[in-house]
Amino acid sequence: MASIKKINSRKYKITVSNGYRLDGRKISRAKTISVPASVHSRSIAQYVAHEAEEFERTVKTGYCEDGEMTFQEYASRWLERQTKYAPSTLGFYRRSLEKVYPYIGSVKLNRLRPIALENLLVELRKRTFRGKPIQEATVQKYLSVLSAVLSDAKRNEIIQKNPARMIDLPDAPQKVQVIPSDEEAREFLDILANEEEPYRTFYALAIYTGCRRGELCALKWSDFTVDGYEGILTVSRSRSMVPGAGVREGTTKNGQARTIYISDDIMSLVQSYWYEKKQEAAMNRIPLSEYLFTNERGELMHPDKFTKHLRKLYGENGFPREYHLHTLRHYFVSTMLHNGVDKQTVAELAGHGDTGFLERTYCHPQMRLKQDAANQLTHSLFDTPGSCANGTAV
Asked: pLDDT for 227-239, tens place per residue?
């Protein structure tokens, strides 16, 4: 219960105890209030009691005590608690936070206001990368990480509002992914038929399952099972490059496992690759690795090898320079959307937490569907008996 000490006729000191620290010291917070002159003398006691009750509620729910923690201290602890994300994702969060600590790291959580974050964004927009100003989308990614930390503080009832959600941001240019045409995809698959293992299987799985590079690099033979005439692939881990730490294995990007059904043709491709790797291991007198993508010595291949080899393959066969390994994943997602698969299913197959990213990134499949709809209407109106070329009914 709050303790109330009268200082003078209209000034009071309210003290609230809230447990003990690890070293045994009592945790207490104090607040001095002045009763407004508009409050009648007969109502002062009631006014002070109400203020004491509100202050005690604030202290007990954590807004007061933990709010004294600096943003950097809380963000560091927040990072330590994040276990569901892949190492590469955590690395991105850590690097992003390190960029903002010089500006707001020493500010106490309960003192962090939207204007401080707006000033931070102004400074971030002055940064350059390879001699060019960083893009607005990159600046807003920093803010997204900040917002995740502050949302966690709000969830834990340390702050009442998330100031990052109160900022009016300018529109960031939307990046539209370059997607291969169906003809290019078929040409690419024909090229793969002449590629050596393990590249052939790696790239085929990339385009048929939409898996990320790190997820493919972490695949094990045990991730494949057979259900009737179809295969089932369970994606539950990732091997990715973490700046300063090398290749690390962890969860998928969103920390969740997902199941992908694959055709018998792709399952046959995987089984054929397994047979080749088994023979290779026997020839080299080593055990067959539990992982798919290893070299002849059974060692895990570096993720960059698949990126560099594909870039060379694109160049040798005249594909656009904008194409990269992730382009195969983009083709998978785009084709699913264009063929009418609902966005929620596509998001689950691709390993996205929700459909928001698809809606922001893959706008062109919907545009193609709209174009097809327009063409169908045109066909119905102008290509049916009883119509003339200018669309006038006869």
From this structure: 766 789 999 999 9
